[in-house]
C-alpha cells in the first residue's frame, strides 16, 4: 500500500479513478490476496459494523466495569437543534459501536478497537440519509484503509505510541476520506478532508480511566465522528488546507513521539489522573481483581 | 507491508485489540502446543496485562483461546464459565517476569494427558502477537502462518531429516529457525509453513528417536 497520501491522490487523479478503487487495485497488485478476497473481507467488515450499530442502539449493554452503557440510546433520541440529521445519527452510531466494544461485543478494529466507532459512525450515519449501495460502502472502506495504511507507516495507529490522535484522530481522518468517497467527491477533496480533520485532532492525548477502553474513549469516538463531518463539509465546499496531508500526518507522528508517557494510554495523566478519574478507576478495579475459575 | 485488511480489521470481540484479541491468540497458540483441550492451565499476567487485564477481559480472552475460540467468537465473554464446564481448571496470577518483556505479556503453563507445555507470548498491538519462549527455548513466532515446532536432540543431519519429511508431503517452508541450549543437548526447531504439516509427516517425525517433542500449530492470526 502507499506510504504517501499525496502520491496516491496524484495517481488516482491521473488514472481518473477514486481513492477506494486505487486502494483495491493496489492491494490486489501486491499479490497476497485477490481483489475478490479483499472485497469479500471488506463486505464482512461492513456487515459486522452494521451489526454492532444495531446491537448498541437499544442501550441495554453495560461495559465490563459498568462505567459506560446506554448513551447511544440517549443519542438516538436526540432532542437538540440537530436532532434527526446526519450529525446526530453519526454520534449515535459511533457511541453504539464503542458501547458494544466496551461490553465485549463483536466489532471491527478500524484502525484499532479503541477507535472502532468513528468509521462505522460516519459511514452508516451518512448511509442512513443517502441512497448508497454496499459496493459504494465497500469502496469507501477501502479508501479508509488506504488512509490508515499511510498513517501507520508515516506516524502511528497506537495510543500507547502516539496518544488518542493516533487512534480516534487517525480513525477520523480515515472516516473523512471515506465519507468524501461515498458522497462522490474527488481524491483531492478526500485528501483535504483528511488534512482538515486531522489538524483538528493534533495533540489529542490518550487518558483512559483505569487504562480501560471506556471513558473517555466511547465519547471521543463520537466527537471524532463530528470532527470528520466538519472535515468532509469543508473539503466538499472547496476549502483547501494549506499544509499537504502527508505533512499533517507527519506532524501527528512527531507530536506523538514527543508526547509525555502520561498521555499515552498509561492512565497517568489527563482525565485518568483527575480526582474523580482516579476514584472511579480505584472503585472499579477493586471489583476487577484477577479471579480463579 | 501494511494491508488494507490490517487497517480495516480484525473482526474481534472488544474492548482492546492488544488486551483482548492478542491475548486470545496467545491462548490459542498455547492450546496448539498440547494438541487440544488442556486439563489445567496456570496463566501468569505481566505488566499492563496484570494491571488492566481484567477490565479488558484479558483473562476471558486467554481462557477462550485455550478453549479453541478465535478473537471474533462471542463465547469469549463467558469463557471462564465455559472452561469450568469443560473441565479446564485455570488459575490466574499477576507476576513480574524476569528479563526484558513487552508490557503486554503472559506466560501460560498447560497440562494435558501427562504432558506439559510452557509458553510466553506478547501482544504487540492491533491483535498481533509474538511468542517469545516455548518450554524454556527462546523463539520468535507470530502465528501468521501454520508452524511446526519440535524439540530434537542436537545431532548432525536432523534439520535435513525434518525438512525432507516436510518436502515429501508437499509442505513449503516459509521460514525456519533452530536454536540449542548447549552443544549435543536439545534444540528447538520452528518451521513456518505455507500449509499445515500433514498428519503423515508428523507421524513419521514423531517416530524418530532424536525427536523429543513435535507439534503442529495452526495459523492463529
Question: What features would you describe in this structure?
Answer:
The complex is a heterodimer of chains A (293) and B (221). With 293 residues, chain A is an all-alpha fold. Chain A is built from 13 helices and 1 strand. Chain A has a single domain (5-287), classed as 2-methylcitrate dehydratase PrpD, CATH 1.10.4100. Chain A has helices spanning 5-15, 19-29, 35-56, 71-76, 86-102, 118-127, 134-154, 159-162, 168-182, 187-198, 217-236, 245-258, 275-287; one strand at 106-108. In chain A, helix 3 (35-56) crosses helix 5, helix 6 (118-127) runs parallel beside helix 9 and helix 10 (187-198) crosses helix 11. The longest helix of chain A has 22 residues, at 35-56. The mean pLDDT of chain A is 95. With 221 residues, chain B is of the alpha+beta class. Chain B contains 7 helices and 11 strands. In chain B, strands 3-2-4-5-6-7 form a 6-stranded mixed beta sheet. Chain B has a 4-stranded antiparallel beta sheet with strand order 9-10-8-11, sandwiched between helices. The model of chain B has no long low-confidence stretch (mean pLDDT 92). At the A-B interface, helix 2, helix 3, helix 5, strand 1 and helix 7 of A face helix 1, strand 1, helix 2, helix 3 and helix 4 of B. Strand 1 (106-108) of chain A pairs antiparallel with strand 1 of chain B, so a sheet runs across the interface.
Using the 3D structure, state the CATH architecture of chain A: Orthogonal Bundle
What percentage of residues of chain A falls in helices of 4 or more residues? 55-70%
Structural class based on helices, strands and sheet pairing of chain A: mainly alpha
Number of domains as seen in the coordinates of chain A: 1
Give the total of domains of chain B: 2
The largest pleated sheet of chain B is described as: 6 strands, mixed
CATH class of chain A: Mainly Alpha
Oligomer: heterodimer
